[in-house]
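Action item from last meeting closed. Structure (454 res):
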C-alpha cells in the first residue's frame, strides 16, 4: 500500500535550496514512525541526520538495541552517494547511480522519523522538530552534515538556475549541468572555484577541474578554452606530499592556478564572475569573464545547530577529536562533516569514525569511559584524468596513512579503478551498512607497520 506523507520541513536542505513546506510521497515503510503521542516520544538513541554517518551508526545500533530504541530523524527520502558526483560531472557515471532510497540504507530495526530537527536542548536531553514532535533521548548522535550556502555568493543561485554553463558537482540539482557545460563549451574561460572556510571533500573542486581539462583535451577543444582554478586557499592542496605532484600536473597541463581568490558575485547576464582578493588590504576584487563556471559553495552545519550549546563559535559540533564524544555532554557524540574535527571531511573519514563511535558509545552505555581513539584518518581520491588517480590518505597533523606499499602520491590507473569500480559497492554494502571501518587493518598488513614519511 502506498502512503503519502506531508511534512513541514522548513529551512535549507542538503541541496542548498530552501525546502519550505515540502510535500513528499513515498512507499509504505515498515519502520516509519507511527507515534501519535507527541508528548511522550522517547528513544534510547536518537540519530539526527541519516546521511553517510547517521546510516552507518543506525546499522550498528538498530539491530543491537531494537526498532523502538533507535530513532533516525532524517527529512529526505533519497540517500546520495555524493563522492560519485565527481564522476557524474565528468560524464563517467549516471546521476541515478548515486541515489538510493533512504529506507533501503537504514536497518529494518530502527524507527525512521521523516522530519527535521528544529532545536536542540541537550541540557534536558530533548529536541523538537518542524513536524511538531518533542523527542527525548538517553544518547544522541549528531550527524547533520553540511548545508550548501550558494546564497552567500551574490547572484549565484540565479546563475545556477538560469545559466546552463554555471554548474556545481556539490548539489544533486546542478551536478548534471557540469557535463552539459563540458560538452557544449566552445571557447573562453572555464573557471573552477574553491571557497573560504571548511568544505566537504576539499579535493572535489580540483577533481572537477582536472577531469574537465582532460575531457576538453581529448575532445579537441583545449586550445580554445583556458582552464583556471581560482581558490581561496594559499596552496593547491593542504598536504605537501600531494601538493608537490599536483603543482607539476597543473604546470604540465597549462591549468592556471589563481590563489587567494574568493568568489563573491556572479552576473550571469554579463557572464562575469567577481572574486575578492583575500590578500588585498583594501578589499579589491577582480572580474573574470567565464564561458563555464563550476562553483564550490561555502558550507556550514545546518542553522538549527547554530544557537544550540552543542556547537562552538565556528558552528561545528564540539567533540573530543580522539573519542568523538561531546566535550560538554558525555551522552552526545558527533561524527561526519558537522563535527569540529581537524581533518578533511570525507566519507572515508566516516568509515574510521564509525568504528570509534560504535566502540565508545557502547562503553558509555555500559557506564564506562570511551577508550577507542580516532587518528583523523581521511582519504581523497584525486582523479587527475579519467584513467588516473592520486589516492591521498592522511590523518591528524598531515600524517600520511597510505594503505598500499606503493607511492600513492603518483597518479595511477589502479587507484582510478578503485574510485570508479570498487568504492561505490564498498559504500552501499559496507560503509552505510556499518560494516566498513576503513582500511586501517589492511594498511598494517600491507606495510608491515612501517609508516610513510611526509
Ligand atoms: C562532489 C563531492 C565529492 C566527494 N568526494 C568524496 C570522495 O571522493 N571520497 C570521500 O570519502 N568523500 C567524498 N565526499 C564527501 C562525502 O560525501 C561526505 O563527507 C559525506 O557524505 C558526509 O556524510 P555526513 O553523514 O556527515 O553528511 P550527509 O551525508 O550530507 O548527511 C547529513 C544528513 O543530515 C540531514 N539533516 C541535516 N539537517 C538536519 C536536521 N536539522 N534534522 C534532521 N536531519 C538533518 C540531511 O538531510 C542529510 O541527509 C564528496 C562530497 C561531494 C559533494
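Sequence:
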Amino acid at each position: 500500500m502506498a502512503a503519502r506523507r506531508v511534512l513541514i520541513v522548513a529551512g535549507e536542505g542538503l541541496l542548498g535550496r530552501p525546502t519550505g513546506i515540502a510535500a513528499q510521497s513515498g512507499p509504505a515503510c515498515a519502520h516509519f514512525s507511527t507515534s501519535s503521542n507527541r508528548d511522550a516520544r522517547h528513544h534510547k538513541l536518537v540519530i539526527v541526520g541519516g546521511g553517510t554517518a547517521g546510516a552507518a551508526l543506525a546499522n550498528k545500533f538498530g539491530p543491537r538495541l531494537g526498532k523502538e530504541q533507535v530513532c533516525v530523524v532524517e527529512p529526505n527520502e533519497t540517500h546520495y552517494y555524493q563522492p560519485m558526483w565527481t564522476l557524474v560531472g565528468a560524464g563517467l557515471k549516471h546521476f541515478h547511480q548515486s541515489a538510493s532510497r533512504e529506507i533501503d540504507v537504514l536497518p529494518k530495526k530502527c524507527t525512521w522519523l521523516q522530519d527535521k530537527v528544529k532545536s536542540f536542548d541537550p541540557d534536558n536531553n530533548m529536541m523538537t522538530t518542524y513536524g511538531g514532535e518533542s523527542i527525548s533521548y538517553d544518547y544522541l548522535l549528531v550527524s547533520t552534515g553540511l548545508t550548501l550556502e550558494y546564497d552567500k555568493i551574490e547572484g549565484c543561485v540565479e546563475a545556477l538556475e538560469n545559466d546552463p554553463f554555471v554548474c556545481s558537482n556539490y548539489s544533486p540539482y546542478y551536478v548534471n549541468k557540469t557535463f552539459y557545460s563540458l560538452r557544449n563549451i566552445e571557447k573562453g574561460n572555464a573557471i573552477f572555484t574553491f571557497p573560504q572556510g571548511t568544505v566537504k571533500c576539499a579535493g572535489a573542486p580540483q577533481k572537477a577541474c582536472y577531469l574537465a581539462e582532460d575531457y576538453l583535451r581529448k575532445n579537441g577543444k583545449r586550445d580554445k578554452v583556458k582552464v583556471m582554478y581560482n581558490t581561496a586557499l594559499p596552496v593547491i592542496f593542504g598536504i605537501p606530499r600531494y601538493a608537490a605532484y599536483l603543482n607539476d600536473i597543473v604546470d604540465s597541463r597549462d591549468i592556471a592556478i589563481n590563489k587567494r581568490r574568493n568568489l563573491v558575485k556572479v552576473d550571469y547576464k554579463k557572464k562575469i564572475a567577481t572574486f575578492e582578493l583575500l590578500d588585498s588590504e583594501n578589499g579589491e576584487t577582480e572580474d573574470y569573464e567565464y564561458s563555464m563556471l563550476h562553483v564550490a559553495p561555502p558550507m556550514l552545519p545546518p542553522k538549527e545547530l547554530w544557537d544550540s550549546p552543542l556547537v562552538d563559535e565556528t558552528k561545528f559540533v564540539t567533540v573530543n577529536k580522539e573519542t568523538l564524544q561531546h566535550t560538554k555532554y558525555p551522552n552526545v557524540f558527533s561524527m561526519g562533516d558537522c563535527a569540529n574535527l581537524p581533518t578533511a571531511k570525507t566519507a572515508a573519514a566516516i568509515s574510521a569514525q564509525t568504528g570509534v563511535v560504535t566502540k565508545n558509545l557502547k562503553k558509555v552505555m555500559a557506564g564506562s569511559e570511551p577508550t577507542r581513539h580516532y587518528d583523523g584518518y581521511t582519504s581523497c581520491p584525486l582523479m587527475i584524468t579519467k584513467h588516473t588517480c592520486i589516492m591521498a590518505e592522511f590523518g591528524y597533523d598531515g600524517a600520511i596513512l597510505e594503505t598500499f606499499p606503493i607511492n600513492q602520491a603518483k597518479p595511477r590507473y589502479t587507484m582510478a579503478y578503485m574510485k570508479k569500480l570498487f568504492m561505490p559497492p564498498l559504500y552501499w554494502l559496507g560503509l552505510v551498512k556499518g560494516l566498513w571501518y576503513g582500511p586501517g587493518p589492511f594498511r598494517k598488513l600491507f606495510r608491515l607497520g612501517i609508516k610513510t614519511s611526509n
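Note appended to the action item: Residues 14, 48-54, 73-76, 82-83, 85-86, 116-117, 143-145, 169-170, 200-201, 204, 302, 304, 336-337, 345-348, 350, 379, 381 surround flavin-adenine dinucleotide (CB under 6 Å).
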